[in-house]
Specification:
Blueprint (H helix, E strand, L loop, with lengths): L2 H27 L1 H6 L5 H6 L7 E3 L2 E8 L7 E4 L3 H8 L9 H5 L1 H4 L7 H9 L8 E4 L3 H12 L5 E6 L6 E7 L12 H12 L9 H4 L9 H11 L8 E4 L2 E3 L6 E3 L9 E4 H6 L4 H10 L1 H10 L24 H7 L10 H12 L3 E3 L4 E5 L5 E4 L4 E4 L3 H17 L13 E7 L8 E8 L6 E7 L10 H17 L2
Parallel strand pairs: 1-4
Antiparallel strand pairs: 1-2, 2-3, 4-12, 5-6, 5-17, 7-10, 8-9, 11-14, 12-13, 15-16, 16-17
Helix pairs in contact: 8-18, 11-13, 11-14, 11-17, 13-15
Length: 485
């Protein structure tokens, strides 16, 4: 080979090598930066080229893509009943998405590896590929009943309903909510304006309070303390006598633990069931101090508190009973008033676990995935998270929670002809602020079809808000919707 030809060949090899280095650099090293570049509109157009799959629940279409006829922004996302289901579906915006739209994005937009066969068939037949359809476990009647009862009352809060035997989430409402439709426009300027308005709203409507925010659980946490006590000794039951002073002396502090409003709880000794029915503080504070922090922490962990982070498939904020401190702090934690922080989903899991004879199922939102032609891609496979308590202990606690509804603080949750179990909670927040109102429940007790947890936030239901009068009637309406009453 002569000299000029060698030099030409080397130059070609060098340029080819530089080209390959540049391609790999752009596609690997700088890919994220280039995608994020506001001047790069290719991604924006691409997001609207594919017909995303539908999100459905029962006979309802919660999200769908509409053909606009615009060659640049072909498909636009629509949410027929946006505000009711927004905390679940989330939104699909030009540069972001949330909730189910985010968690199942690769399926909805058709890029998931699970859809490879479908894409291959479409390619072979020259058919435009579409995203997969995501069907949810949500019961529309329950969801709409919860939205109406909580959302149209002017209250703030969240509600979660679960099927105890499977963990399927039947309702998930967060109030205040928002309309995701203005966030789905292809016009970035319009979307940014709508987004900024929502982000600046002091009521945080974009926040899914059911899974993204934790609250002090108040007296609803007493069922966890009761479970720990029942598990500590198989002779303990609803009729077991417990100490119930008007004020519980707490060690190493001048403060005492009183009952709600400073009231007496019986005559100093009451049954465990009576203590739960009337939501006395002092018996549960004494029980927790006797059992110790580890027993309460371990019992909470078996309900899913403080364990691995949940995904339903959206990530769920971690719940906790708080760190180990002293006996006084433990007594307060036993009634949900120390460092305890719980999501409404976690409290629904507790109610569901008790109803399901002690077995806590993993909560989930996705019922099944189907490709654009209806072929099944995946379906729910219910799985146990943990066994929180023995069947014997669970049945004892079920009995006591039924007594709470039949003759205790939760009479407003009674449903004619249905045996309902429940526990109220009025959680103090800060000095001078109104309390949160909680309620957890399940029905029917003999064959549970639904478990509910509900919080009405501080200040949104007045200074006299309580779990029994404020929250229980809302939960009742949701249980009735699930049971078809």
């Amino acid at each position: 080979m002569n000299g000029p030809l060698k030099r030409a060949a080397l130059a070609c090899l060098l340029m080819f090598g530089l080209l390959m280095i540049n391609v790999n650099y752009l596609q690997a090293v700088r890919a994220d930066d280039l995608r994020a570049n506001p001047r790069n509109d290719r991604n924006l157009y691409a997001r609207y080229e594919v017909e995303r799959g539908r999100i459905t629940a029962g006979n309802k279409v919660l999200a769908e893509s509409i053909d606009t006829g615009d060659p640049e922004f072909r498909f636009e996302r629509r949410y027929p009943e946006g505000k009711v289901y927004a905390p679940i579906t989330g939104f699909f915006a030009p540069e972001s998405e949330s909730n189910i739209e985010r968690a199942e994005n690769s399926l909805l937009n058709g890029t998931s590896a699970d859809l490879l066969i479908r894409r291959s068939i479409d390619l072979f037949t020259a058919k435009q590929s579409k995203g997969a359809n995501v069907d949810l476990t949500i019961n529309p009647r329950a969801q709409e009943a919860a939205y109406k009862a909580l959302g149209e009352s002017g209250k703030k809060g969240a509600l979660v309903a679960i099927e105890p035997k499977t963990g399927a989430i039947l309702a998930m409402v967060s109030i205040p909510t928002y309309d995701p439709n203005p966030l789905s426009k292809a016009n970035k300027a319009q979307v940014n304006e709508a987004s900024k308005e929502l982000e600046n709203d002091e009521n945080t409507p974009l926040l899914n309070r059911a899974v993204e925010r934790t609250y002090p659980p108040g007296s609803t946490f007493k069922v966890v303390t009761a479970a720990a006590y029942l598990e500590s000794d198989d002779t303990v039951g609803p009729e077991t006598q417990v100490d119930a002073p008007q004020r519980l002396d707490l060690p190493n502090t001048t403060a005492d633990l009183p009952n709600y409003g400073g009231a007496a709880c019986g005559a100093g000794r009451v049954t465990l069931s009576f203590a739960l029915e009337k939501s006395c503080n002092t018996p549960f504070g004494k029980i927790a101090m006797d059992l110790g922090y580890e027993a309460l922490r371990d019992q909470a962990a078996r309900f899913g508190i403080g364990g691995e982070q949940l995904a339903i498939p959206m990530p769920v904020a971690a719940s906790s009973i708080g760190p180990e401190e002293d006996q006084a702090a433990l007594a307060q934690a036993s009634i949900g008033q120390r460092s305890n922080q719980m999501t409404p989903l976690q409290m629904a899991m507790i109610a569901a676990g008790i109803a399901n004879n002690g077995v806590v199922m993993k909560p989930y939102l996705v019922n099944k995935i189907a490709d654009s032609e209806g072929g099944e891609v995946a379906s729910a496979d219910p799985d146990a998270l943990d066994t929180a308590m023995s069947e014997d202990s669970a049945r004892k606690l079920q009995e006591m929670m039924v007594n709470v509804v039949n003759k205790g603080t939760a009479s407003a949750a009674q449903i004619p002809g249905v045996t309902v179990g429940g526990k109220t909670g009025t959680a103090e927040t800060a000095q001078g602020r109104d309390p949160h109102a909680w309620f957890i429940s399940f029905a029917p007790a003999e064959d549970p079809k639904v478990a509910v947890a509900l919080i009405v936030e501080s200040g949104s239901a007045g200074s006299d808000a309580s779990g029994g009068q404020t929250a229980a009637p809302i939960a009742k309406s949701v249980m009735e919707a699930v049971l078809g009453r």
